[in-house]
Amino acid sequence: KVLITPRSFEKIKDKFEEVFKEEGIEVMLNPFGRVLTEEEMRELIRDVDGLIVGIDPVTSKVLKNANKLKVISKYGVGVDNIDILEAKKRNIVVTNTPGANSNAVAELTVGLIINVLRKINLSDKKTREGRWDRFIGNELSEKTLGVIGTGSIGRRVIELLKGFNLRVLCFDKYPDYEWASKEKVFYVTLDELLRSSDVVSIHVPLTEETYHMISEKELRMMKKNAVLINTSRGGIVDEDALYRFLKEGRISGAGLDVFEKEPPQNSPLLQLDNVVVTSHIGAHTEEAVANMAKLAVENLLLALKG
Ligand code: NAD
Predict the structure, then answer these.
(1) N or C: which end of the chain has fewer CB within 10 A?
(2) Distances, alpha carbon 214 to alpha carbons 106, 191, 223, in Å
(3) Which tens digits make up the pLDDT trace of 206-253?
(4) Whole-number Å distance between alpha carbons of 303 and 243
(5) Which residue's alpha carbon is nearest to atom 35 within ligand 1?
(6) Ligand 1: does its nearest atom lie under 6 Å from the Cβ of 232?
(7) Residue 125 C-alpha to ligand 1 middle, in angstroms?
(8) What is the pLDDT of residue 150?
């Protein structure tokens, strides 16, 4: 028996029905059609052998109720919603779908960058309200892009932005100098990246180390006209500090697909005109959904078969 939680799976489930039937697997889809709570996960996981999971919590409390679980197949890349240590203790295999959604997230990142720089959302809103405010924005060409995390998504962002003739500065815990010299990009310290970049884009996973990696101290290093883009995880940025810096014009704008608490109800960030927000839709393209589903099912079946 397998529990599948991502909502987007519902639309493509027919594709896999035959495969599951052949393997004698009974599929239980998310009955609530939204991200599940810890309590709901605890109940639903009780007698399943496999789990395909999105961003629903797979905490130690949930895993303590998973008596038969052999595999957690993450539908996506970030496994910060899964207690990996607890899973390991229980001999549960954890897999993810690296690269399957990189292009989707990278394209959204590019969209957010241009949107923030040219105030597209604000202009759209004002024009609909009957106003004709001709905002002055900034161009991206010839500027300095700072990429925090040069994994799959960070590299794809750099690749997509090649036509803009940017100077690209990178920061990563594990720099790949060979790749950097081939791409003509430069690894620098985080401080140097923040001080020199016009656009800072975050592509590291959320871990204990990266939690609030961008806080007041780091924001203070950024240029006054710089913009911050986060399509990674909300917890990496201290949102209270970010709000203050944006409100006081100490950085110019932000594009956010992710929040510490999702949805970000009552977040003061939503009141600011220099912030463009989206609802964690980075990986939500038909192409990425199909890629992730295929890989997540393959991983699940391989692990179930041992
Ligand atoms: P990846 O594993 O390919 O790359 C992550 C990079 O971060 C690696 O190069 C790694 O060395 C680096 N890194 C890790 N810890 C670091 C640290 N403490 N300091 C500096 N660098 C560090 O992952 P990816 O596919 O590029 O995805 C990146 C993140 O994007 C995911 O972890 C996920 O949280 C997020 N994501 C968001 C969406 C969305 O819908 N918005 C979709 C997919 C992924």
Answers:
(1) C
(2) 20, 11, 14
(3) 999 999 999 999 999 999 999 999 999 999 999 999 999 999 999 999
(4) 44
(5) 232
(6) yes
(7) 32
(8) 98
- Residues with Cβ within 8 Å of 273's Cβ and at least 6 positions away in sequence, in order, are 119, 122
233 catalytic per annotation? yes
Which pLDDT value is given to residue 14? 84
Side-chain-side CA neighbours of residue 37 (13 Å): 2
pLDDT the model gives residue 218: 98
Across the beta sheet with 199-202, what order do the strands follow? 186-187, 167-171, 144-148, 199-202, 227-230, 253-256, 275-277
Give residue 60's Cα distance to chain centre.
Answer: 23
Q: pLDDT (tens digit, 9 = 90+) per residue, 127-136? A: 999 999 999 9
Is 280 a residue of the active site?
yes
Q: Which atom of ligand 1 is nearest to the CA of 150?
A: 9
Active site residue 23: no
Is the pLDDT at 267 greater than 90? The verdict is yes
Burial 177-189 (b: 16+ CB within 10 A, else e): eeebeebebbbbe
At 15, is the pLDDT very low, low, confident or very high (cuts 50, 70, 90)? confident
**Residue 152 CA neighbour count, 13 Å, CB half:** 14
Q: How do residues 113-158 score in pLDDT, each as one tens digit?
A: 999 999 999 999 999 999 999 999 999 999 999 999 999 999 999 9
10 pLDDT above the threshold of 90: no
Instruction: Tokens 């809103």: give the residue.
Output: 125
Q: At what angle do helices 8-22 and 286-304 cross, to 10 degrees?
A: 30
Q: What does the DSSP assignment read for 83-95?
A: -HHHHHHTT-EEE
Q: SS in 3 state form for 226-260?
A: CEEEECCCHHHECHHHHHHHHHCCCCCEEEECCCC
d(CA 156, CA 288): 14
Under 8 Å between Cβ of 203 and 170: no
Per the structure block, which two tokens stand in for 168?
């690209």
